[in-house]
Amino acid sequence: MVLISLLSFGVFLGYIGRTSAGICRPSLIEWLITSFLLFAGSIIITGYCLSALDLTGSTWAWAIAVFIPPTILSFVFSKITPQTTAFSPLKMVISRWHAAQRWYVSGTVYLRFLFGIMILSVAIIGITNLLLVLFTVPNEWDSMTGHLNRVIQYIQRGTMAHFGGTNWNIDTYPKSVCTIQIYSYLITGKFENAFKLIHHLSYWITLVAVFGIAQRITKNRLNASFFCALAFALFLDFLMQAVTTETDIVLAAYLSCLLYFLFTYRVTYENRYLYLAALSFGIVYGHKVTFTLLLPSVFVVMIYTVFLQKGKGQKKENVILGINWTAIFKLGIAIVVCFCLWTLPTGYVKNIQVFGHPIGPPTSLKHQSIERATSNGGYRNLFEQGSRNVVRYAYDFVNLDGLRNVKIGQDINRGMRIPLVWLEDKLRMRLDETTEFSIVPFSFERRFEFFNGNPYWGIFGFALVFPLLFLALFGILRSPSHWFLAVALLLHFAALSYSAPYDPWKGRYFQETGVFGVLFLTLLFTHKYSLEKSGYSVALKTYVGVVTVVACISALLAVFLNFRCLPFDALGKKSAFKTERIPMMTFARPDITQAYLKFDELVPDSATVALGTINDDFEYPLYGKHLTRRLIPIRPFEQPLRPIPPGTDYLMYAKSDTIALFRPLPTDIRLGTDTTMKGMIVKGEDYYLRKLK
């Protein structure tokens, strides 16, 4: 069965590649990006259909049905934008490999050094991350409470229908990424680490897309394109998620594909890129609602790439005031169609029916939205607190993340930031004293868990990207494309600052901002003092060289000292490869580890367990090593306690001091929690296990 499903998976990948070759132009970059979109888009829409038929957990249904969407998409594209040039992706891969070798050898000594250390660093990180993906279990907080928890529920129930989970994320988050995780898990013979497939793939596809966008902006300058792609591979918030099941890295991949097609349309004026951009738009909006915060930024890019372009052979009556109305109409219609197919079915409509809002229940909105500021002082207070957040995040960016995982790096980082701390104190901004618009109060010395697990861009961000951004924004470095990108980046920065309270975990949300930001590095190769020129700008070359070396060291330290997933023994912890399943999954809440180990020992893998746990409790580890235990939540988020279903074998519950829904019986087994541990982000409950039959 496993061999057959894996064979089906291989055939599907081949079919996707062949279908993409019939849609895109003869370009390796374009073929890879189009294949990724068809892969994701086909699985997503298949998942919605199988859920309606109660076949979500059927491997056979997935293996067959997943071929239908790409067949339909191939037919549609053949009618609206027929492909006239056939090409072989394999021959193109070989050709581009030889071209890349010639490119590297032809560079100056300086460029060979610069690119050499970047390529070596990315290669080491890539191999390490791949091994971590394949041989370590998922253990991210949101996945333990929500993301992966609901995936197993959907598989066991046979449908992705709303069921009322303990954590509000289970029912409110869009379900598109779940479809890909479910397919990956089932088609690989229920290989648990396949849940990470789409996230790890997103890392590499984003780099491909960034390379392609840089090619369009610089008119095919290889040095600029390679530098952008390799630099983004070293952006810390981005590379850290390549081994996780967090959702932001997938959003960054979809966004980068969307931007690639928009910039490619500006160069080619071919309608196929409007339709592929619309497909990207539908998929990315269906992936996560935070794409809403990117809408102003994407709109700005559309103005530059689509709205203000006349197009080849465009009729005069279709171009009014220099605006390409025909392209706008085609893009708009395509977006509406793709929005209906890939966005609406993902759960937004159901959220409105259940919670009265497309995002979720009022509690979550008040906790994580502008309501937290507007409810106390209106929009004037929102402007004040949001502006304070802008400065907070700006301060967080100016850190040697990765490097400060070691003491010497931390000492250098503190010394570097002394003037910033002094300035904040003199200006009396009260960044760390005002807490009304903060999930966790701002601190100039963020907790180790925050900067270790969720860093920002590292030195590339504050030492190169932002200086170049402001030089382009104020016209000192003239580049129309970068001016629009600067506006887009700042709009997203502002959206993240004003739309929700300050959150020290926010580094991961700036991955999408980084897709815009990394493109400013092309300016190092396109202006008077270019790094390509020999004998010029010695100071600039030295500066960029030092920044790049520090960035490479920081990236390597971020991976090798990633407290959440250590590839080697470090920081007083065992390597993730040698850590047992339960301790690995509960690393963020070590006080509950022993209780969960005891539960795993006492409860058979085939048991049905009613869960009286609370919103922040880790439920995913309780499914067992083979994910075969059936867990039934009886304390849905903000809903009354449900009765224990007949046929349930065990009851596990958390006894809270404030909400005593269950009173322990003399026969209940106390699993407990370690109350001696200090500094927990969330403390574990007192857990009990009751045998029901």
UniProtKB/TrEMBL annotation:
It comes from Runella aurantiaca. The chain crosses the membrane at residues 31-53, 60-80, 113-137, 224-242, 249-269, 289-307, 319-344, 456-476, 483-501, 513-531, 543-563. Pfam families: PMT_2. InterPro entries: RgtA/B/C-like (IPR038731). Keywords: Membrane, Transmembrane, Transmembrane helix. It comes from the Bacteria. Residues 184-306 form the Glycosyltransferase RgtA/B/C/D-like domain. This is Glycosyltransferase RgtA/B/C/D-like domain-containing protein.
